[in-house]
Amino acid sequence: MSALINVPAKVRRGDVIEIRTLTSHIMETGFRHTVDGKLVPRDIITSFTCRYNGAEIFRADLFPAIAANPYLSFFTVAKESGKFEFEWIGDNGYSSTASASIIVE
Amino acid sequence: MPTTRRQFLSLAGGITAAGTIPIVTLRPLQATPAMLNTAIRNVVGEAQLRTGRVKLDIPPLVENGNTVPMTVSVASAMTADDHVKSIHVFNEKNPQPNIANFHLGPSSGRPQVSTRIRLADTQKVVAIARLSDDTFWQVAAEIVVTLAACTEEMN
Amino acid sequence: MSVWRAIAAAALFAAAPALLAGEIPPDAHRSGYSFMGPDTRAMQDDDTANPGMLFVLDGEALWGKKTGNAEKACADCHGDARTSMNGVAARYPAFDKPLGRPVTLDQRINLCRANHQLATPLPYESRDLLALSAFVAHQSRGIPITAGDDPNLKPFVDQGRNLFMQREGQLNLACTNCHDDNFDKRLAGAPVTQGQPTGYPLYRLEWQTLGSLERRLRSCMSGVRAQAYDYGSPELVALELYLMSRARGLPVETPAVRP
Known about the structure:
The complex is a heterotrimer.
Chain A lengths: L2 E4 L3 E2 L4 E8 L21 E8 L2 E8 L8 E7 L4 E9 L3 E11 L1
Chain B lengths: L4 H16 L12 H12 L4 E3 L2 E4 L3 E2 L5 E7 L9 E8 L6 E6 L8 E6 L5 E9 L4 E10 L10
Chain C lengths: L1 H14 L22 H8 L6 H12 L10 H5 L2 H4 L9 E3 L4 E3 L1 H13 L9 H12 L15 H12 L9 H5 L6 E2 L2 E2 L10 E3 L4 E3 L1 H11 L10 H13 L10 E2 L1
Parallel strand pairs in C: 5-7
Antiparallel strand pairs in C: 1-2, 3-4, 5-6
Protein backbone atom coordinates (compact mmCIF):
# COMPACT_ATOMS: atom_id res chain seq x y z
CA MET A 1 0.00 0.00 0.00
CA SER A 2 1.35 3.37 -0.96
CA ALA A 3 1.27 6.81 0.51
CA LEU A 4 1.84 10.11 -1.23
CA ILE A 5 3.56 12.71 0.94
CA ASN A 6 4.10 16.29 -0.07
CA VAL A 7 6.52 18.30 2.06
CA PRO A 8 8.61 21.14 0.62
CA ALA A 9 12.24 19.99 0.34
CA LYS A 10 13.93 23.24 1.32
CA VAL A 11 12.48 26.26 3.17
CA ARG A 12 13.52 29.23 5.27
CA ARG A 13 13.43 29.04 9.06
CA GLY A 14 10.10 30.28 10.40
CA ASP A 15 8.16 29.65 7.20
CA VAL A 16 4.68 28.20 7.64
CA ILE A 17 4.59 25.16 5.37
CA GLU A 18 1.79 22.95 4.12
CA ILE A 19 2.04 19.18 4.50
CA ARG A 20 -0.21 16.97 2.40
CA THR A 21 -0.68 13.22 2.79
CA LEU A 22 -2.71 10.72 0.83
CA THR A 23 -2.75 7.05 1.73
CA SER A 24 -4.36 3.90 0.32
CA HIS A 25 -7.19 2.61 2.50
CA ILE A 26 -10.69 1.34 1.76
CA MET A 27 -12.29 3.10 4.79
CA GLU A 28 -15.12 0.57 4.93
CA THR A 29 -17.83 2.25 6.98
CA GLY A 30 -19.33 -0.78 8.70
CA PHE A 31 -22.77 0.40 7.59
CA ARG A 32 -22.90 -1.34 4.21
CA HIS A 33 -24.37 -4.70 3.27
CA THR A 34 -23.41 -7.17 0.57
CA VAL A 35 -25.89 -8.29 -2.11
CA ASP A 36 -26.85 -11.26 0.07
CA GLY A 37 -27.55 -9.06 3.07
CA LYS A 38 -24.44 -9.53 5.18
CA LEU A 39 -23.07 -6.52 7.02
CA VAL A 40 -19.59 -5.60 5.81
CA PRO A 41 -17.50 -5.12 8.97
CA ARG A 42 -15.97 -1.73 9.66
CA ASP A 43 -12.38 -1.35 8.49
CA ILE A 44 -11.13 2.22 8.80
CA ILE A 45 -8.09 4.23 9.77
CA THR A 46 -8.90 5.68 13.18
CA SER A 47 -5.85 7.79 13.87
CA PHE A 48 -3.21 9.76 12.01
CA THR A 49 -0.16 11.35 13.64
CA CYS A 50 2.60 13.56 12.28
CA ARG A 51 5.82 14.01 14.23
CA TYR A 52 8.52 16.56 13.44
CA ASN A 53 11.91 15.45 14.74
CA GLY A 54 10.11 13.28 17.27
CA ALA A 55 7.58 15.82 18.55
CA GLU A 56 3.92 15.47 17.66
CA ILE A 57 2.77 18.48 15.63
CA PHE A 58 -0.57 17.21 14.30
CA ARG A 59 -2.96 14.39 15.10
CA ALA A 60 -6.36 13.43 13.70
CA ASP A 61 -9.07 11.04 14.91
CA LEU A 62 -10.89 9.71 11.86
CA PHE A 63 -14.40 8.27 11.61
CA PRO A 64 -16.28 6.32 8.89
CA ALA A 65 -17.35 9.67 7.35
CA ILE A 66 -13.80 10.14 6.01
CA ALA A 67 -13.62 9.20 2.31
CA ALA A 68 -11.63 6.19 1.07
CA ASN A 69 -7.90 6.80 0.53
CA PRO A 70 -7.74 9.48 3.24
CA TYR A 71 -6.32 12.86 2.26
CA LEU A 72 -5.09 15.28 4.91
CA SER A 73 -3.54 18.69 4.55
CA PHE A 74 -2.26 20.73 7.51
CA PHE A 75 0.40 23.29 8.38
CA THR A 76 3.45 23.68 10.58
CA VAL A 77 6.22 26.17 11.27
CA ALA A 78 9.56 25.08 9.80
CA LYS A 79 11.88 25.24 12.79
CA GLU A 80 14.84 23.08 11.92
CA SER A 81 16.11 20.60 9.36
CA GLY A 82 15.11 17.03 9.98
CA LYS A 83 12.43 14.49 9.46
CA PHE A 84 8.64 14.29 9.44
CA GLU A 85 7.23 10.93 10.42
CA PHE A 86 3.68 9.93 9.57
CA GLU A 87 1.72 7.13 11.14
CA TRP A 88 -1.72 5.74 10.29
CA ILE A 89 -3.39 3.35 12.72
CA GLY A 90 -6.69 1.57 12.17
CA ASP A 91 -9.05 -1.35 12.66
CA ASN A 92 -7.80 -4.96 12.57
CA GLY A 93 -4.34 -3.94 13.72
CA TYR A 94 -3.73 -1.74 10.69
CA SER A 95 -0.58 0.33 10.90
CA SER A 96 1.51 2.06 8.28
CA THR A 97 4.23 4.68 8.35
CA ALA A 98 6.01 7.05 6.01
CA SER A 99 8.56 9.82 6.37
CA ALA A 100 9.88 12.87 4.56
CA SER A 101 12.89 15.05 5.19
CA ILE A 102 13.20 18.81 5.08
CA ILE A 103 16.09 21.24 4.92
CA VAL A 104 15.55 24.48 6.85
CA GLU A 105 17.99 27.30 6.16
CA MET B 1 -34.24 14.43 -34.96
CA PRO B 2 -36.52 16.46 -32.68
CA THR B 3 -36.79 15.25 -29.11
CA THR B 4 -40.25 14.03 -28.31
CA ARG B 5 -41.67 13.98 -24.82
CA ARG B 6 -41.46 10.19 -24.78
CA GLN B 7 -37.79 10.24 -25.73
CA PHE B 8 -37.04 12.77 -23.02
CA LEU B 9 -38.87 10.73 -20.42
CA SER B 10 -37.17 7.52 -21.42
CA LEU B 11 -33.80 9.28 -21.32
CA ALA B 12 -34.55 10.81 -17.93
CA GLY B 13 -35.68 7.42 -16.69
CA GLY B 14 -32.48 5.85 -17.93
CA ILE B 15 -30.25 8.24 -16.07
CA THR B 16 -32.24 8.07 -12.88
CA ALA B 17 -32.16 4.33 -13.09
CA ALA B 18 -28.41 4.40 -13.59
CA GLY B 19 -28.13 6.30 -10.33
CA THR B 20 -30.52 4.24 -8.26
CA ILE B 21 -30.92 0.68 -9.50
CA PRO B 22 -27.77 -0.73 -7.98
CA ILE B 23 -28.78 0.23 -4.45
CA VAL B 24 -28.74 -2.87 -2.37
CA THR B 25 -27.45 -1.13 0.70
CA LEU B 26 -30.14 -0.48 3.24
CA ARG B 27 -28.98 2.64 5.00
CA PRO B 28 -29.17 2.14 8.76
CA LEU B 29 -30.65 4.72 11.06
CA GLN B 30 -29.48 8.20 10.26
CA ALA B 31 -27.88 10.29 12.90
CA THR B 32 -30.50 12.64 14.28
CA PRO B 33 -30.18 16.26 15.38
CA ALA B 34 -30.28 14.85 18.94
CA MET B 35 -27.30 12.58 18.20
CA LEU B 36 -25.51 15.56 16.65
CA ASN B 37 -26.13 17.58 19.80
CA THR B 38 -24.92 14.76 22.00
CA ALA B 39 -21.75 14.34 19.95
CA ILE B 40 -21.11 18.08 20.19
CA ARG B 41 -21.75 18.11 23.96
CA ASN B 42 -19.27 15.25 24.35
CA VAL B 43 -16.60 17.61 23.07
CA VAL B 44 -17.77 20.94 24.40
CA GLY B 45 -19.25 19.85 27.72
CA GLU B 46 -21.20 22.61 29.38
CA ALA B 47 -19.09 25.37 27.87
CA GLN B 48 -20.73 28.11 25.89
CA LEU B 49 -20.65 27.57 22.13
CA ARG B 50 -20.12 30.85 20.29
CA THR B 51 -20.61 31.49 16.63
CA GLY B 52 -17.73 32.89 14.58
CA ARG B 53 -13.96 32.67 14.03
CA VAL B 54 -14.31 29.31 12.25
CA LYS B 55 -14.61 29.01 8.48
CA LEU B 56 -15.86 25.89 6.70
CA ASP B 57 -15.21 25.53 2.97
CA ILE B 58 -17.27 22.80 1.32
CA PRO B 59 -18.76 23.11 -2.16
CA PRO B 60 -22.44 24.03 -1.54
CA LEU B 61 -23.47 21.59 -4.27
CA VAL B 62 -21.28 18.50 -4.34
CA GLU B 63 -20.80 16.21 -7.35
CA ASN B 64 -20.66 13.02 -5.37
CA GLY B 65 -21.35 12.54 -1.68
CA ASN B 66 -18.75 9.78 -1.42
CA THR B 67 -15.80 12.17 -1.72
CA VAL B 68 -16.41 15.78 -0.69
CA PRO B 69 -13.45 18.15 -0.29
CA MET B 70 -13.59 20.12 2.95
CA THR B 71 -11.34 22.79 4.48
CA VAL B 72 -11.70 24.20 8.00
CA SER B 73 -9.80 27.27 9.12
CA VAL B 74 -9.87 29.40 12.24
CA ALA B 75 -9.04 33.04 12.87
CA SER B 76 -6.19 32.81 15.40
CA ALA B 77 -2.74 34.33 15.91
CA MET B 78 -1.33 30.85 16.69
CA THR B 79 0.99 32.07 19.42
CA ALA B 80 1.89 30.24 22.62
CA ASP B 81 -0.79 32.21 24.49
CA ASP B 82 -3.46 32.32 21.82
CA HIS B 83 -3.88 29.34 19.52
CA VAL B 84 -6.24 26.63 18.33
CA LYS B 85 -6.03 23.41 20.35
CA SER B 86 -8.42 21.34 18.30
CA ILE B 87 -11.01 21.36 15.53
CA HIS B 88 -14.00 19.00 15.56
CA VAL B 89 -16.26 18.33 12.59
CA PHE B 90 -19.76 16.83 12.78
CA ASN B 91 -22.62 16.00 10.45
CA GLU B 92 -26.34 15.74 10.87
CA LYS B 93 -27.52 12.81 8.75
CA ASN B 94 -24.75 10.26 8.15
CA PRO B 95 -25.23 7.02 10.10
CA GLN B 96 -23.14 8.56 12.85
CA PRO B 97 -22.48 12.19 13.73
CA ASN B 98 -18.64 12.41 13.95
CA ILE B 99 -16.48 13.22 10.96
CA ALA B 100 -13.05 13.99 12.45
CA ASN B 101 -11.13 15.62 15.31
CA PHE B 102 -7.91 17.48 14.51
CA HIS B 103 -5.38 18.30 17.24
CA LEU B 104 -3.18 21.32 16.62
CA GLY B 105 -0.84 23.55 18.60
CA PRO B 106 1.09 26.81 18.42
CA SER B 107 3.64 25.13 16.13
CA SER B 108 0.92 24.58 13.52
CA GLY B 109 1.51 28.12 12.28
CA ARG B 110 -1.74 28.25 10.40
CA PRO B 111 -4.93 26.76 11.85
CA GLN B 112 -6.22 25.19 8.67
CA VAL B 113 -6.97 21.56 7.85
CA SER B 114 -8.30 19.93 4.65
CA THR B 115 -9.65 16.44 4.05
CA ARG B 116 -12.32 14.61 2.03
CA ILE B 117 -15.51 13.45 3.65
CA ARG B 118 -18.62 11.38 2.96
CA LEU B 119 -22.08 12.88 3.08
CA ALA B 120 -24.92 10.39 2.73
CA ASP B 121 -27.52 13.06 2.07
CA THR B 122 -28.16 16.78 1.82
CA GLN B 123 -27.41 17.98 5.33
CA LYS B 124 -25.77 20.33 7.78
CA VAL B 125 -22.05 20.10 8.65
CA VAL B 126 -20.78 21.74 11.84
CA ALA B 127 -17.17 22.65 12.67
CA ILE B 128 -16.12 23.62 16.18
CA ALA B 129 -12.75 25.01 17.29
CA ARG B 130 -11.39 24.84 20.82
CA LEU B 131 -9.00 27.68 21.52
CA SER B 132 -6.19 27.78 24.06
CA ASP B 133 -8.40 29.77 26.47
CA ASP B 134 -10.88 26.87 26.33
CA THR B 135 -13.52 28.86 24.51
CA PHE B 136 -15.45 27.04 21.76
CA TRP B 137 -16.38 28.58 18.42
CA GLN B 138 -18.59 27.08 15.74
CA VAL B 139 -19.80 27.44 12.18
CA ALA B 140 -22.41 25.43 10.27
CA ALA B 141 -22.94 24.93 6.53
CA GLU B 142 -25.80 23.40 4.55
CA ILE B 143 -24.52 21.09 1.82
CA VAL B 144 -26.65 19.85 -1.08
CA VAL B 145 -25.67 16.34 -2.19
CA THR B 146 -26.90 15.58 -5.69
CA LEU B 147 -26.05 11.89 -5.67
CA ALA B 148 -26.44 9.93 -2.48
CA ALA B 149 -23.34 8.13 -1.30
CA CYS B 150 -22.92 4.35 -1.39
CA THR B 151 -25.20 3.65 -4.36
CA GLU B 152 -23.15 1.07 -6.21
CA GLU B 153 -23.69 -2.62 -5.80
CA MET B 154 -20.80 -4.17 -3.94
CA ASN B 155 -18.61 -6.38 -6.02
CA MET C 1 -16.91 35.83 -52.93
CA SER C 2 -19.92 33.85 -51.82
CA VAL C 3 -19.22 31.33 -54.57
CA TRP C 4 -15.72 30.78 -53.19
CA ARG C 5 -17.09 30.36 -49.71
CA ALA C 6 -19.57 27.78 -51.00
CA ILE C 7 -16.80 25.86 -52.74
CA ALA C 8 -14.60 25.99 -49.67
CA ALA C 9 -17.45 24.73 -47.56
CA ALA C 10 -18.19 21.95 -50.03
CA ALA C 11 -14.54 20.92 -50.06
CA LEU C 12 -14.48 20.79 -46.27
CA PHE C 13 -17.63 18.74 -46.26
CA ALA C 14 -16.20 16.29 -48.76
CA ALA C 15 -12.95 15.98 -46.82
CA ALA C 16 -14.61 15.23 -43.51
CA PRO C 17 -15.17 11.55 -42.75
CA ALA C 18 -18.78 10.48 -43.04
CA LEU C 19 -20.59 11.05 -39.80
CA LEU C 20 -23.63 9.05 -38.84
CA ALA C 21 -26.63 11.06 -37.72
CA GLY C 22 -26.06 12.37 -34.22
CA GLU C 23 -22.29 11.80 -34.17
CA ILE C 24 -20.20 14.59 -32.65
CA PRO C 25 -17.84 16.29 -35.11
CA PRO C 26 -14.19 15.73 -34.08
CA ASP C 27 -13.52 19.41 -33.32
CA ALA C 28 -16.37 19.37 -30.79
CA HIS C 29 -14.99 16.40 -28.83
CA ARG C 30 -14.64 17.16 -25.13
CA SER C 31 -13.09 15.19 -22.31
CA GLY C 32 -15.25 14.41 -19.29
CA TYR C 33 -12.88 16.77 -17.45
CA SER C 34 -14.61 19.77 -19.05
CA PHE C 35 -17.96 18.71 -17.55
CA MET C 36 -16.63 18.59 -13.97
CA GLY C 37 -16.78 21.18 -11.22
CA PRO C 38 -13.68 23.06 -10.03
CA ASP C 39 -13.15 20.89 -6.93
CA THR C 40 -13.02 17.62 -8.87
CA ARG C 41 -10.76 19.22 -11.48
CA ALA C 42 -8.41 20.36 -8.73
CA MET C 43 -8.25 16.79 -7.43
CA GLN C 44 -7.14 15.53 -10.86
CA ASP C 45 -4.75 18.42 -11.55
CA ASP C 46 -2.56 17.96 -8.49
CA ASP C 47 -0.65 14.66 -8.49
CA THR C 48 -0.19 14.83 -4.72
CA ALA C 49 -3.96 15.14 -4.22
CA ASN C 50 -5.08 12.70 -6.95
CA PRO C 51 -5.91 9.34 -5.32
CA GLY C 52 -5.38 7.65 -8.71
CA MET C 53 -1.66 8.33 -8.24
CA LEU C 54 -1.60 5.85 -5.33
CA PHE C 55 -2.37 3.14 -7.88
CA VAL C 56 0.25 4.48 -10.30
CA LEU C 57 2.81 4.18 -7.48
CA ASP C 58 1.70 0.60 -6.78
CA GLY C 59 1.95 -0.15 -10.50
CA GLU C 60 5.49 1.21 -10.62
CA ALA C 61 6.47 -1.17 -7.83
CA LEU C 62 4.84 -4.12 -9.65
CA TRP C 63 6.60 -3.15 -12.89
CA GLY C 64 9.95 -3.86 -11.27
CA LYS C 65 8.90 -6.96 -9.33
CA LYS C 66 9.90 -10.43 -10.58
CA THR C 67 6.96 -12.79 -10.83
CA GLY C 68 5.77 -16.09 -12.34
CA ASN C 69 7.75 -19.26 -13.07
CA ALA C 70 10.02 -17.29 -15.39
CA GLU C 71 11.02 -15.04 -12.46
CA LYS C 72 10.84 -12.04 -14.72
CA ALA C 73 9.66 -8.50 -14.08
CA CYS C 74 8.00 -6.30 -16.71
CA ALA C 75 11.14 -4.17 -16.50
CA ASP C 76 13.37 -7.13 -17.45
CA CYS C 77 11.94 -7.01 -21.00
CA HIS C 78 10.59 -3.48 -21.29
CA GLY C 79 13.18 -1.54 -19.30
CA ASP C 80 12.27 1.93 -18.16
CA ALA C 81 8.52 2.37 -18.67
CA ARG C 82 8.92 6.13 -19.04
CA THR C 83 10.41 5.52 -22.48
CA SER C 84 9.22 2.03 -23.46
CA MET C 85 5.57 2.62 -22.52
CA ASN C 86 5.40 6.23 -23.67
CA GLY C 87 2.43 6.52 -26.05
CA VAL C 88 1.44 2.85 -25.82
CA ALA C 89 -1.90 3.33 -24.04
CA ALA C 90 -2.92 5.98 -26.59
CA ARG C 91 -3.15 3.26 -29.25
CA TYR C 92 -4.93 0.58 -27.21
CA PRO C 93 -6.96 -1.58 -27.73
CA ALA C 94 -4.50 -2.78 -30.38
CA PHE C 95 -4.63 -5.59 -32.94
CA ASP C 96 -2.92 -8.79 -31.81
CA LYS C 97 -1.72 -10.74 -34.86
CA PRO C 98 -1.55 -14.24 -33.30
CA LEU C 99 -5.04 -13.87 -31.85
CA GLY C 100 -6.43 -12.08 -34.91
CA ARG C 101 -8.41 -9.65 -32.77
CA PRO C 102 -7.98 -6.49 -30.70
CA VAL C 103 -6.76 -6.77 -27.11
CA THR C 104 -7.12 -4.20 -24.35
CA LEU C 105 -4.22 -2.97 -22.24
CA ASP C 106 -5.46 -5.20 -19.39
CA GLN C 107 -5.49 -8.18 -21.74
CA ARG C 108 -2.02 -7.30 -23.06
CA ILE C 109 -0.68 -7.26 -19.50
CA ASN C 110 -2.18 -10.70 -18.89
CA LEU C 111 -0.84 -12.01 -22.23
CA CYS C 112 2.61 -10.87 -21.15
CA ARG C 113 2.13 -12.63 -17.84
CA ALA C 114 1.05 -15.85 -19.55
CA ASN C 115 3.61 -15.86 -22.37
CA HIS C 116 6.69 -14.28 -20.86
CA GLN C 117 6.41 -14.33 -17.08
CA LEU C 118 4.66 -17.73 -16.95
CA ALA C 119 2.35 -16.27 -14.33
CA THR C 120 -1.37 -16.63 -13.68
CA PRO C 121 -3.60 -13.90 -15.13
CA LEU C 122 -4.61 -11.04 -12.84
CA PRO C 123 -8.41 -10.90 -12.43
CA TYR C 124 -10.27 -8.00 -14.05
CA GLU C 125 -10.65 -5.04 -11.65
CA SER C 126 -8.11 -6.53 -9.24
CA ARG C 127 -5.92 -3.95 -7.56
CA ASP C 128 -2.74 -5.27 -9.20
CA LEU C 129 -4.16 -5.24 -12.74
CA LEU C 130 -5.59 -1.74 -12.28
CA ALA C 131 -2.30 -0.56 -10.79
CA LEU C 132 -0.18 -1.94 -13.64
CA SER C 133 -2.59 -0.65 -16.23
CA ALA C 134 -2.68 2.80 -14.57
CA PHE C 135 1.11 2.89 -14.40
CA VAL C 136 1.47 1.98 -18.09
CA ALA C 137 -1.29 4.36 -19.24
CA HIS C 138 0.15 7.17 -17.10
CA GLN C 139 3.28 7.04 -19.31
CA SER C 140 1.03 8.34 -22.13
CA ARG C 141 -0.47 11.24 -20.22
CA GLY C 142 -0.81 14.21 -22.56
CA ILE C 143 -0.37 12.12 -25.72
CA PRO C 144 -3.25 12.31 -28.24
CA ILE C 145 -5.30 9.13 -28.61
CA THR C 146 -4.76 7.32 -31.93
CA ALA C 147 -6.41 3.95 -31.19
CA GLY C 148 -8.12 2.25 -34.13
CA ASP C 149 -5.72 3.45 -36.84
CA ASP C 150 -4.54 -0.08 -37.71
CA PRO C 151 -6.57 -1.20 -40.80
CA ASN C 152 -6.82 -4.69 -39.28
CA LEU C 153 -9.05 -3.16 -36.63
CA LYS C 154 -11.67 -1.79 -39.04
CA PRO C 155 -14.26 -4.58 -38.62
CA PHE C 156 -13.92 -4.41 -34.83
CA VAL C 157 -14.30 -0.62 -34.75
CA ASP C 158 -17.45 -1.05 -36.87
CA GLN C 159 -18.74 -3.71 -34.50
CA GLY C 160 -18.17 -1.34 -31.58
CA ARG C 161 -19.91 1.49 -33.38
CA ASN C 162 -22.92 -0.72 -34.08
CA LEU C 163 -23.11 -1.65 -30.40
CA PHE C 164 -22.86 2.05 -29.46
CA MET C 165 -25.78 2.89 -31.78
CA GLN C 166 -27.91 -0.11 -30.84
CA ARG C 167 -30.78 0.33 -28.37
CA GLU C 168 -30.76 -2.20 -25.58
CA GLY C 169 -32.20 -3.06 -22.20
CA GLN C 170 -35.64 -2.60 -20.72
CA LEU C 171 -35.25 1.16 -21.09
CA ASN C 172 -34.39 0.66 -24.76
CA LEU C 173 -31.57 3.21 -24.85
CA ALA C 174 -28.43 3.23 -26.94
CA CYS C 175 -25.15 4.82 -25.79
CA THR C 176 -25.61 7.39 -28.57
CA ASN C 177 -28.95 8.60 -27.17
CA CYS C 178 -27.19 10.14 -24.19
CA HIS C 179 -23.57 10.61 -25.24
CA ASP C 180 -24.01 11.89 -28.82
CA ASP C 181 -27.48 13.46 -28.72
CA ASN C 182 -27.82 14.82 -25.20
CA PHE C 183 -24.41 15.61 -23.75
CA ASP C 184 -24.11 18.86 -21.79
CA LYS C 185 -27.66 18.48 -20.49
CA ARG C 186 -28.18 17.73 -16.84
CA LEU C 187 -30.12 14.79 -15.52
CA ALA C 188 -30.55 13.90 -11.87
CA GLY C 189 -28.28 16.85 -11.10
CA ALA C 190 -25.31 15.41 -13.00
CA PRO C 191 -24.09 16.51 -16.41
CA VAL C 192 -24.37 14.05 -19.29
CA THR C 193 -20.89 13.80 -20.84
CA GLN C 194 -19.78 12.71 -24.29
CA GLY C 195 -18.43 9.46 -22.88
CA GLN C 196 -14.86 10.05 -24.09
CA PRO C 197 -12.63 7.46 -22.38
CA THR C 198 -9.58 9.68 -22.00
CA GLY C 199 -8.46 8.89 -18.48
CA TYR C 200 -8.91 5.16 -17.80
CA PRO C 201 -8.29 3.47 -15.53
CA LEU C 202 -9.67 6.39 -13.52
CA TYR C 203 -10.62 7.28 -9.98
CA ARG C 204 -14.37 7.71 -9.64
CA LEU C 205 -15.52 9.51 -6.54
CA GLU C 206 -18.59 7.29 -6.54
CA TRP C 207 -16.47 4.12 -6.62
CA GLN C 208 -13.90 5.57 -4.20
CA THR C 209 -11.36 3.56 -6.11
CA LEU C 210 -9.78 3.16 -9.51
CA GLY C 211 -11.82 1.35 -12.16
CA SER C 212 -11.60 0.31 -15.79
CA LEU C 213 -13.58 1.50 -18.78
CA GLU C 214 -15.21 -1.93 -18.82
CA ARG C 215 -16.50 -1.41 -15.29
CA ARG C 216 -17.95 1.93 -16.39
CA LEU C 217 -19.59 0.40 -19.47
CA ARG C 218 -21.06 -2.41 -17.41
CA SER C 219 -22.60 -0.01 -14.92
CA CYS C 220 -24.10 2.00 -17.81
CA MET C 221 -25.59 -1.24 -19.12
CA SER C 222 -27.18 -2.19 -15.84
CA GLY C 223 -28.40 1.44 -15.69
CA VAL C 224 -30.47 0.93 -18.83
CA ARG C 225 -31.45 -2.48 -17.46
CA ALA C 226 -29.57 -4.46 -20.06
CA GLN C 227 -27.59 -7.62 -19.36
CA ALA C 228 -24.01 -6.38 -19.08
CA TYR C 229 -21.39 -8.16 -21.20
CA ASP C 230 -18.71 -10.06 -19.30
CA TYR C 231 -15.32 -8.48 -18.62
CA GLY C 232 -13.05 -9.13 -21.59
CA SER C 233 -15.92 -10.19 -23.87
CA PRO C 234 -15.52 -9.38 -27.58
CA GLU C 235 -18.43 -6.91 -27.33
CA LEU C 236 -16.87 -4.88 -24.49
CA VAL C 237 -13.50 -4.87 -26.25
CA ALA C 238 -15.16 -3.68 -29.49
CA LEU C 239 -17.02 -0.93 -27.61
CA GLU C 240 -13.81 0.13 -25.88
CA LEU C 241 -12.04 0.21 -29.24
CA TYR C 242 -14.80 2.26 -30.87
CA LEU C 243 -14.87 4.71 -27.95
CA MET C 244 -11.10 5.15 -28.09
CA SER C 245 -11.19 5.68 -31.86
CA ARG C 246 -14.08 8.13 -31.37
CA ALA C 247 -11.89 10.06 -28.87
CA ARG C 248 -9.14 10.39 -31.47
CA GLY C 249 -6.91 13.40 -30.82
CA LEU C 250 -7.95 13.97 -27.21
CA PRO C 251 -4.98 13.64 -24.82
CA VAL C 252 -4.67 10.71 -22.41
CA GLU C 253 -5.32 11.87 -18.79
CA THR C 254 -4.63 8.69 -16.81
CA PRO C 255 -5.25 8.61 -13.91
CA ALA C 256 -8.26 10.90 -14.38
CA VAL C 257 -10.68 11.75 -11.57
CA ARG C 258 -14.42 11.74 -12.27
CA PRO C 259 -17.50 12.20 -10.09
